[in-house]
Structure formats: C-alpha cells, structure tokens
Amino acid sequence: MGKNVAEKIIEKHLLSGSMVAGSEIGLRIDQTLTQDATGTMAYLEFEAMGVERVRTERSVAYIDHNTLQSGFENADDHRYIQSVAQKHGIWFSRPGNGICHQVHLERFGVPGKTLIGSDSHTPTAGGLGMLAFGAGGLDVAVAMGGGAYYITMPKVVKVELHGALQPFVTAKDVSLEILRRLSVKGGVGRIIEWGGEGVRTLSVPERATITNMGTELGATTSIFPSDEITRAFLKAQGREKDYVNLEADPDAEYEQIIDIDLSALEPLIACPHMPDKVVPVASLRGTKVDQVCLGSCTNSSLYDMLKAAAMLKGRQVNPYVSMSVSPGSKQVLRMLADCGALSDILASGARLLECACGPCIGMGFSPNSGGVSLRTFNRNFEGRSGTRDAKVYLVSPETAVAAALTGEITDPRSLGISAPDVCLPEHFTVDDSAILAPASPEEAPGVEVLRGPNIMSCPAGQPIPDSMTLPVGLKVGDNITTDHIMPAGAKILPYRSNIPKLSAFCFEVCDKDFAARAKALGESVVIGGGNYGQGSSREHAALVPLYLGVRAVIAKSFARIHAANLINAGILPLCFADPADYDRLAQGDELELCDIHTGLVSGEFTLRVHGESIRLCGSFSERQRAVLLAGGLLNYTREENM
User: Fold this and answer.
1) φ, ψ for residue 342 (rounded to 5)?
2) What is the DSSP string of 25-42?
3) What residues does 555 pair with on adjacent strands?
4) Which of 148, 210, 309, 400 is deepest in the core (most CB within 10 A)?
5) What DSSP element (H or E) covers 598?
6) 131-157 tens-digit pLDDT
7) How far is CA 235 from CA 318, 330, 362, 424, 554, in A?
8) By the 8 A CB rule, do 540 and 496 touch?
C-alpha cells in the first residue's frame, strides 16, 4: 500500500510508537520556532531543563507579537529572548523583520522536514511541504533539548482540488469553504492533506494561506505536496538546494476524500464571531464597514500585497473607512517599495503598520465601538480585536479592498474593474541582516542572559493525587477559546512573562470575578462544554489556571493543543462519558474524584456530586500518565534527566 505525504514524513521521523491512528507517536523534530508572546516562557522552561545548547537542525526566535512598547515589559522580554537565543544556539529575528510564519516560509522552511512552533499557526509551513505543528512552549523547549514531540497519530483526510480559481476568488475563499463544510471541530484528530490537479494552479503563498487557516478546523496540521511550484519558490528565495520532491503515492489511502471544484467557488466571508460562520460575500451586500485590515500571517505575502496594491492604485479608500496594511516581512515591504506598489497603497489613504502581527492579536488598531471590521486574518473571536462589541469578519485581500473602496461589504466581482494579474518574481530580495546568528559553542559561556523585573519563573505543578475533592470554580459553555481563558491584546500581552500579574485577567471575558474567586478557593475545577480550549497554542491558558489552583478541567471535548498543554502543566483533563451530564453540574458544586491513579490506566473515572455518580473518561498514554503523576512535563523531564 502506498503512502500519503504526511505518512512519508512521519515514517522518517518516527522515534516511538507505530503509525496507527489513535495511538501515541513520538517524532524527531528538525526545526522549532517561537514568537515573543509565548517565547519568553518557552525559554525560561528551556533554561530550567539545564540543556546548554539546542539540539535541533534550526531553532529560530521571532519578535512579532508584542512590538507595541508602551512600557518596559515588552522591551525587556525582547532583550531576554535575544540574549538567551545567542547563548543557547538559537537564531534571532529582530523586531520589524516580520511575522514568524511568513519569514520562516521565506528563509527557513524545508520540504520533508518537521517543525513545531509555540504558535498555533505554525502549520503555515505545510504550504511548503513541511510537517509543521503548533504546540505549547514546553513542548517546544523539550524539542529544542533534543526530546521527541508526542502526538496522537492522526487520521489523514485528503482534499482533492479540481479546476482553477476564477477572477477575484482566492486561496482564502478555499479556506473558508472547507471551514463552511467541516466547522471549527471538523479537523480534530486529522491531518488535512491537499492534492489533485488543482494544486498545480496554486502558488506557495496561496498554499500557505490554506494551511494557515487549517488551524481553525482544529486539525493537527495541514500539508501540500512539494513539487515544481515549491522548487520555483525556493529558487526565487535563493534556496533551491533545500528542495526535495515529496508527493503522495498513487495508491495512498485516506480516511476521507473531499472534492472541491475551484472554478465553482465564489468570494466568501466568515461572520462574527467564529471562523466557520461562512456565507457568500454577495449575501451581505450593502453592510456598512468601518474598518479594513490587510495583513496577518494568513494574507501578508508579497502576492497578497501586490494584488491589493493593484486594486487600490489610482483609487481612494472610502472617507468613512479606516484601512491598515501590515506587510508580513521586511522582504515584502522592501519589494513593495522597490516596485512602486507601496506608493499606490499609501496614495489610496491606507495606513501602513509595521511588519508584525498587530491588529490580529489586538495589538493596536482596534475598531470603533460597535464597529464592523473586515480583516484578512484567521480568527474573529469575540473581543479578540480589542473592542468587545466589534463585529469582525474574515475575508480575502480582494474582498477587503472592495469594502475599503466602497465603504460597505462588496463582492469584488461587482466593482467593474479587472482582477489583478500578479506573478511572483523570479528572484526575491534577500536581506537576512535582521536575522542574528547565535554565538558559537566556544563563545556561548561568556554570553550574559539579560532579565528584566517583569520576567518571573513558570509556576510549579503538583503531582496528581489519587483522590481530590474540589469545588467548581467556573462553568462555561461550548467553543471556549484560549482567548476566553487567557486574553491577548495590548493591555495584557506585556505580562506573558509574569504569570502572577497575568492571572488577574484569567477568564475575564467569561467572568471578571473568576481570578479572585479561584485564589480564595485555593484549589478548584473548571467545567467546560464542547471543543474546550480551541484557538491559540498559548500555554498560558494552562499555566495561569495552574497558578490559580485549577487541578482539573472536565469538559464535553477538548481541542488538541490545549489538552496537551493541560497535561504538560499537570492539570487533569477529563471528558463526560455522557455529554448530557454536563447539565448536572453547577458552579459552586463540591466534586469528589477517587481512584484517579487507577483511572489514568483504565481511562474510566467516577465523579461524585450531591450523593450521585457521574462517569468520566480520559485517554492517556503511558508517558502522559507519568507526566501527570510527576506534576507536569517540566518535573517529568527533570526526573528523566536525573
């Protein structure tokens, strides 16, 4: 039997386990990346492990999230990350050099290699044929130290593409179409592999848009084959030596095959407040728009920016619309400037922001009160923009520009203009001066790691006891995201390296009194609905509850990365055997969990409340059981290395 693309890479990197769907496997990791909102904690954890130098082929630290420096905190984090990277063998991408996923695609991604990053959109590199995973910072730290990355062996779903995209229909619309079909839960436990003759019509930046948005499906990762389109992109970046051909065997098998006719797609839009609330753009025609944002790791490539610039050339942004443009990297910005496209953007009245994540994580450019904001981003969770009552829609660059010009949601096909005809250059402008090499092994001992007063150590987990009696500190509903648990935004992100300070904001979106109540309770449990913890890979959504005394989370179901982060923190994640039992629990209930250690092996747990029993379940590998019994991955790793 032939193998698909994902299986070929997994087979070459398999350190433990077998390639049987549902079983735990350990993978050798070739590359890692971090960004500054999660990186400080990841490097504190790496230091705590006592490893002197990274053992990966390439590890890169990016500064792209916390670039708004209204106080000393973000600048101190950047200084710390730069010094720890220099000391321990990690490449450092300076602030302003660009968004981690865009820069990594340009300068470091290699087909057939494995990559994990402390950012949930790390699968962007799948557009280049990498097997790339978003992960918690501690998983990244362990991989940097030479340890395996553990996941449950996913099933592989193939999306077969046919035909070619029509004018004004884009890769973003392909992403929204698959979200419309599968929902934000549809990719859980699966790798989405893209194939079919339609793949040959998509450039690497377009493929990267699709793999980036695969994160919103809840997928383990997404991947495209590495073919002549990939070779051309790498050659244009001066990296043709990194190319390898990687395609599925003709007789490869998949759990499911989904067919998409590219020529039949139309411009699509995701409505507030979830990426899978997808409808045709034309169905919302005439909706007034206050703000338009072009950029993010999803749509900030040179390809995207050139199309937007062509549509804006000689035209003016509507006087009642505020438009921002954030190129994804310094390379993109320089090439826009060199070809004159940047002048076309600026002349239109759009505002140029730096090459960073910016508005996507609520770091500036928040909408007005109750405002409608069209964004080329990947998430539109409630409040993520920084404005609680804003209505955020997700769109393609072409649809974004159409709204900016008309002042209302507009199908770009109705503008009466020709679709931009953009070709990628044969040679990109390569300038790696903002990527700093680490010190040599000989020089490293003399490098001082610089720490500011806001940088605190990570909280220590406690071994899971055999029984626990815990009050319910909070009960929440379905689709609780990591933005609900641990919000982002300009006011909060500077405290990502200070867990005690950060804890004041935990679950603030759901219950502003939670943090104080959790502290008063000492130890507690959180009750959640379906798909608990979807969204970002931020391990702070586990570390902060740990600091506040949360010992267990009981939910209808969990998002993959968050469940792993809870285990890494030493918090017990359990599911209702019967989801209807969720309704039997209320905030303030006293819960009793007994025979936990036996349950970790059997996967069956009994919860007692009000004199009645509720069946719970949890599937834990032998390694995960050991991690929980040690009180978290950091304790487990220390014990293993002793």
Assistant:
1) -65, -40
2) EEE--SEEEEEHHHHHHH
3) 528, 575
4) 400
5) helix 596-602
6) 999 999 999 999 999 999 999 999 999
7) 40, 19, 36, 12, 50
8) yes
